Amino acid sequence: SRVGGLISIVEHEKTGLLFPVGDYKELAVAIERFLNEEALVKNIISNASVMLREKFTLSLMAQNTLKVYKEAACLKL
Questions:
Q1: CA angle at residue 16 from 13 to 19, to 5 degrees?
Q2: For a tag on the chain, would you pick the N or C end, based on fewer CB atoms within 10 A?
Q3: How confident is the model at residue 76 (pLDDT cuts 50, 70, 90)?
Q4: Vertex 52, ends 48 and 54: CA angle to 5°?
């Protein structure tokens, strides 16, 4: 659903399907689309795989974590 960090990772109809928080009818529509639209599923899998390889490598995740620690260490409390 369109909540939290998911909206910064999932792009609707490109790397997944998003729906409003708590909207079970739209969730059902999304599930039906995954079950019935083979081309959509293949496209989402392909796009999500590329995004994962580009944005979520071990090296990038380590660099981003280190950056957060460095920024936190410079804060004056």
A1: 80
A2: C
A3: low
A4: 115
Alpha-carbon torsion, ordered 47, 48, 51, 57, to 10 deg: -150
- In the chain, the N- to C-terminal Cα span, in Å, equals 36
pLDDT beyond 70 at 9: yes
Whole-prediction pTM: 0.74
Q: Positive or negative, the Cα torsion across 52, 55, 60, 64? A: negative
What would the pLDDT profile of 32-64 be if each residue is shown by its tens digit?
A: 999 999 999 999 999 999 999 998 899 999 999
Q: How far apart are CA 63 and CA 66, in angstroms?
A: 5
pLDDT of res. 77:
55
